[in-house]
Amino acid sequence: MNDWAPIAKEYDPLKAGSIDGTDEEPHDRAIWRAMLARYVPNKGVTGDPHLTLFVARLNLQTTEEKLKEVFSRYGDIRKIRLVRDLVTGFSKGYAFIEYKEERALLKAHRDANRLVIDQHEIFVDFELERTLKGWIPRRLGGGFGGKKESGQLRFGGRDRPFRKPINLPNMKNDFYGEGSAEKRNWSREATRDWRPRDRDHERSRDKRWPERERSWAWGESERERDSKEERSRGRERKDRDR
After folding, report:
1. Which residue, of 114, 131, 148, is where some domain finishes?
2. From the record, what ranges are coiled-coil (predicted)?
3. Which of 135, 116, 193, 117 is nearest to 16 (CA)?
């Protein structure tokens, strides 16, 4: 517990797939793919990874000029790389921004997260591909974040950090009666004690049934008597009026 931290210091797909980093088995196929993947960062990417920000959830219409206009307020920018599709040339919705100074990087990381650009709330974090050991991208089953609907939630990042583990005793065996022989015998005796009670309940219910029928029959006779009395009273009133 002393080494626990809400933000992952080293990427482990199995821990990233757990809300508190304590799962021992993967709960979806993407984690299996990430565990079996051997990812090597793109060697074609240049620049200092420790001065680079990852900006995601961008509007597909957002351009490099717009990003430069917004992020230049935090400091001098060295390079902006908006990731585009190789075939269509359209934006994929995320970019990398490299600053000249660490002070500007930290300020943008603190203030630009959840900023609205072109009607989209953006997400800002440090670059992890070249800085976090063992990093596996989202397309290979790794990454952080993810949608709840997809069932591939990932934890340990800024957007969805780990929850602190709760150490609870293992109560599964006692709950299902799989403990000692004394507990199993006690559960059997309890079931035996309940059976005659059920039979007594059925017998009492059978005894009460004819009583209910009598009460219903008595109620119907009372209603008939009341209706007859009302009819006779009505006839007497008519005779008096005449």
Report:
1. 131
2. none
3. 135
Q: Could you give the CA distance from residue 129 to residue 127 in angstroms, rounded to a whole number?
A: 6
123 shares its domain with 59: yes
Distance between CA 209 and CA 106 in Å, rounded?
80
Taking phi first (over 0 means left), then psi (-120 to 50 degrees means alpha), and beta for anything else, what does residue 116 get?
A: beta
12: in domain? yes
- Domain hosting 139: range is 1-39+134-161
Q: pLDDT by residue for the chain (242 residues), tens digit each?
A: 567 889 999 999 999 999 999 899 998 899 999 999 999 888 888 999 999 999 999 999 999 999 999 999 999 999 999 999 999 999 999 999 999 999 999 999 999 999 999 999 999 999 999 999 999 999 899 999 888 887 889 999 999 999 998 875 454 444 334 444 444 444 434 434 444 444 555 555 555 555 555 544 444 455 566 666 677 776 666 666 65
The CATH code of the domain that includes 80 is: 3.30.70.330
Residue 226 lies in a domain: no
- Rounded Cα distance, 68 and 82, in Å: 11
The count of domains in the chain is 2
Residue reference for tokens 């997260």: 113
**Same domain for 52 and 66?**
yes
Q: pTM for the whole thing?
A: 0.66
CA distance 191 to 107: 67
